Amino acid sequence: MKKVDTYEKFVDYMKDVYSQKFNDYKLTHSESVIDFFNACYNCMILASNDESLAYYSYHIYQLAMDLRDVEADNKESFLKEYWSLIREYARLLTGEYEPLVKGALPDEYNVFGHIVHISTRNPKLIAYTPTLEKREEDIQVQAKLGKYLGKTFADLKPHNIGSIVDRFNLLQFGDDGADLSNYKLKFAKTADEIEEIYSLDINLTAYENGEGRSCMQYDASYFESPVHPCRVYGYDDSLVLAYIVNQDNDVLGRAIVNLKRKEFVRTYFLYGYKDLFERILYNNGLQYNPSCLDGLHLDYIEYGNGFVAPYLDGHYTHAYVDGDHLVINNDGFALDQTNGLSFEVSTFSCNCCGDESDEDSGVLTENDGYVCSYCAENEYVWAYDQWKQEVLINVDEAVIVDNIYIANDALDENGYVEVRDENGMYEILAKEDCIYYEGEYYHPEYFEYNLESIVGEDEDDLKEAKELIGA
Ligand SMILES: [Zn+2]
Description:
Structural class: alpha+beta
Number of strands: 26
Number of domains: 3
Bound molecules: zinc ion
Distance between the termini: 123 Å
């Protein structure tokens, strides 16, 4: 690696880097400051988008944005101020430096300007530039990671550093060199002990890349079941929860274990701790077997139409009821819900407004099936049907007469009839308030005004009709 300890050497160096990374464009020594400046900017953008440099990308991106915003007159003085930083990032881009793997060091230990990377001379060490002066002199300091952390972060206690270094070695090198005496394997056996571990607010995942969070890693209030679903593990003496803690007693991983078979079903861990946790399990004589839950018992706690149930991992994810407990098997009920119950609470779409609702079933209507309670209250009325029974129907299917609702098609049966008044407008009247003449109901006023056209001119008929009106 060539020493680049002056601005002039930096200019030459960056022109090489630029030619290397942008083959189609060769910067020459006659290039203007502006062109050179843009070349530096392009390299930083390239570096900030390089996935292998994810650990540095935030800082590189900040630098690139600063470069972008520099005014034309200030470009050269900006470069003269920041050239050594750009040089360091460019070395990561060209592969002269081996970068840290993303996540190997937690972000809070990513010091701007230090540019911690794997030492080029001793790959067991890290190297960094502790000060601006050292950086400009192009001097990198080598150190063991633990020593660097202790020097840079005065608050860190030795066992904190030990954990960070172990995790670093695992992620950076896939190295099994962690000191296992820093960790303790423990077992939670009772329902209370098991619930306590599952209730911790920690991001346990089953995926090596650290994505996802265990759906059971919440306290009881998160679930729809009245008790924490993982309490049911406390029923069977052969079923325990194994977990590891560091010297601060932080839980770093857990796994359900069949003690009789000395097997665990699946590991959940903090990002970075999978290998370490599994190695500790193996060292304690426990083997991975996704079928190992077969036949184990769970507490049977009925709730609603079902029972309290955790999400089961592995090849045996069902259970059947046997007296006061459940037996894990491939028969019976699927324990595949994340809400803490054996049955999914059904959602339904309201037949009135069409909205999805999480109510158990909504409200059953006479003609439209289930509707949500909002619609039931605002769009439906209890009305008398053809059998004079009150039924819940849409308000458009009912009429209101004398302060009661009657289904449109049940007027007759309920003693009502639709008749025209003296102006020819339709009105609903109780039959007893109408004139009943020759098999037809008439509005009294309509009947009176239209007497002759209804009855005819026969004297006797008219007289009889007038008696009906009471005239
Ligand atoms: Zn609705």
